[in-house]
Amino acid sequence: MKTKDMVFAALFAALLGVLGMIPPIPLGFIPVPITAQTLGVMLAGCFLGKKTGTLSIILFIVLVALGLPLLSGGRGGLSVFVAPTAGYLLSWPIATFCIGLATEKLWTKIKTWKLFVVNVVFGVLLVSLIGAPVMALITHTSIWAGLVGAVSFVPGDCIKALLAAIIAVQLKSVSPIEEKLE
């Protein structure tokens, strides 16, 4: 791995921490708040690609596990891995890898709408399909109830997916993916 890739991974881990400083929006009917951090997850995949993007998210999760209060609401430490948000948090590296893989395959013919679809499928739906059942198991509710509750995240996550697609396409010329394909 090149030094530039390591720097990008560290910068995106820091970006995820900064997005965690934006206060969460709690919902009364589900124990998982709305946060801005999924925007960073999608951006890591579409801007950095599968390898560097996933590394940045893993680095972030390790920092959280070490106790840094980087998650939205100032949370950190090992307790977050047994909280209702654990499934969502653990889905981030998988989502980033899938977004990065799809983005790299589409890179030469990349369009904002294509990247938006990739972000919705892997950054919205995949994260919810992993996070909601884990939340349901932790809170001792039905998986169906968890999935129905997760629907409340879809409108905001779709806006984040669009923002990530627009930003990634606008910054395409400076993306590390561009260098790897040359």
Automatic annotation (TrEMBL):
Keyword Transmembrane set for record: yes
Pfam family, one: BioY
Annotated TM spans: 30-48, 55-72, 78-103, 115-138, 144-169
Gene3D superfamilies assigned: 1.10.1760.20
Primary residence: membrane
Compartment annotation: Cell membrane
InterPro entries per UniProt: BioY
Top-rank taxon: Bacteria
Keywords carried by this UniProt record: Cell membrane, Membrane, Transmembrane, Transmembrane helix, Transport
Membrane-related topology note: Multi-pass membrane protein
Family per similarity comment: Belongs to the BioY family.
Name under which the protein is recorded: Biotin transporter
Native source organism of the sequence: Paenibacillus segetis
Origin organism lineage: Bacteria, Bacillati, Bacillota, Bacilli, Bacillales
